[in-house]
Amino acid sequence: MIHEKTPSAAFDIVIVGGGIVGAATLYQLQQRYPNRTILLIEKERELAGHQTGNNSGVIHSGLYYPPGSLKAKNCVEGRRALVRFAEEHKVPHDVCGKVVVAVEPSELPMLEKIHGIGQKNEIEGLERIDGDQLRDIEPHCKGVGALWVPCTGIIDYRAATRKMVDLALGLQSHSALRLGEEVVSFEHSEDHTIVRTDQSQDGIRAKHVVVCGGLQADRLARKDGVPLKERVVGFRGDYYELTEQAKHKVKNLIYPVPNPDFPFLGVHFTRMTDGEIECGPNAVFTFKREGYGKTDFDLKDTMEALGYGGTWKLFFNNMAFGINEYRRAFSKRLFLKTLQRMIPDLTMEDLRPGRSGVRALLLSQDGDTRDDFRISYTDRNIHVLNAPSPAATAALAIGEHIAELAEERFTF
């Protein structure tokens, strides 16, 4: 149970953003500085209301990410820390393993490349398997080869987020959580920042601020004076679920070999912690950053995204993929056809519409997705500018990294 408290007007640290990265940052900072007061502010009425609570629930292994990158390092370390955290604090999870499936011989070289990356990232238990071994693990799955990744798992990220915040607030009686309060501006003086919200006319005085803004990261950074050329653009992912009569066709997690020319992993199968089986997500441009419906629209979000050259360059560079993703978004039959590449005996009756999520991509002006994690600074504050998947898996490692940065840069 979250302890929501009424805070005082001044804190040592204010954290903006109540997704899992903000929660993990609170948890790690409060452990490192048990005598410091920290406030977490979230504009929604609940924690983990956007990317964290609407992702696929996968604990990623660190399989795909360039060796030596922040993403690879934090994913591997964060995964291990997250599993330990879930075990210790009884967060629903299951380290069930996944298969990455090559459906056609043409996909085998990419599968081998991923295998090599996984080995360099020291993914424990990683194994190359053939089609017969694949069917032993996933009897309804068809492929010419696969990778078995036993350390991949599933977790309830909403529950993990709530538990991190609850534990952190239990360490310091004067630390606090504010929900349903949106940060609108930052004002700077010689030794502190005034964080103004839509609920606080006088603002909140903070010696230091850490912003984990997710889909709003670029806007919040600019309000705090971060010179940022890139812009966040949202992409919605739609899911289907398997009906009761079809759930036996998927045991755990089944992923395709990703296309290296496309900045998403592709439609996959995931067994959730509640036993449901999700299929997806696709990836389509959304006309509203926090819009989860297929027809959701926000004029400001749309004008900002479509008025930015990087968006159009991304579109042009991925035109064929984008068109196919949009067709799938509005056609159950096309979505099914994609799923049947890995599980041929799926039928239309096996699928029912599921939920949607929105992912934030920090796009450069040339359309590059700036795929690695990215953290920037002002004189006193820290901004997490880019934390795409596997940020949820890596959250505790990202929080630890921020705590180390705070030790270097913050003065109390």
Q: Can you lay out the helices and strands and say which pair or pack?
A:
Blueprint: E1 10-16, H1 20-32, E2 38-42, E3 58-59, H2 70-89, E4 93-94, E5 98-102, H3 108-120, E6 127-130, H4 131-137, E7 145-149, E8 153-155, H5 157-169, E9 176-179, E10 183-188, E11 193-197, E12 200-211, H6 217-223, E13 231-242, E14 253-256, E15 268-271, E16 277-280, E17 284-285, H7 299-306, H8 309-317, H9 319-329, H10 332-340, E18 351-363, E19 374-377, E20 382-386, H11 391-409
Parallel strand pairs: 1-2, 1-12, 2-9, 5-14, 12-20
Antiparallel strand pairs: 3-8, 4-8, 5-7, 6-7, 10-11, 11-12, 13-16, 13-17, 13-18, 14-15, 15-16, 19-20
Helix pairs in contact: 1-5, 1-11, 2-11
Labels describing this entry:
alpha+beta; 31% helix; eight-stranded mixed sheet; FAD/NAD(P)-binding domain; nine-stranded mixed sheet; 20 strands; 412 residues
Please describe what this structure looks like.
The chain is of the alpha+beta class. Among the domains are: 154 residues, FAD/NAD(P)-binding domain; 103 residues, no CATH class. The chain is 31% helix and 26% strand. It has eleven helices and 20 strands. The protein is globular and about 65 Å long.
Summarize this entry quickly.
This protein is of the alpha+beta class and 412 residues long.
| Count of strand segments | 20
Q: What is the CA–CA distance across the termini?
A: 30 Å
Structural class: alpha+beta
Q: Please name the CATH topology of the domain at 10-52 and 158-229 and 371-409.
A: FAD/NAD(P)-binding domain
Give the overall pLDDT as a whole number: 93
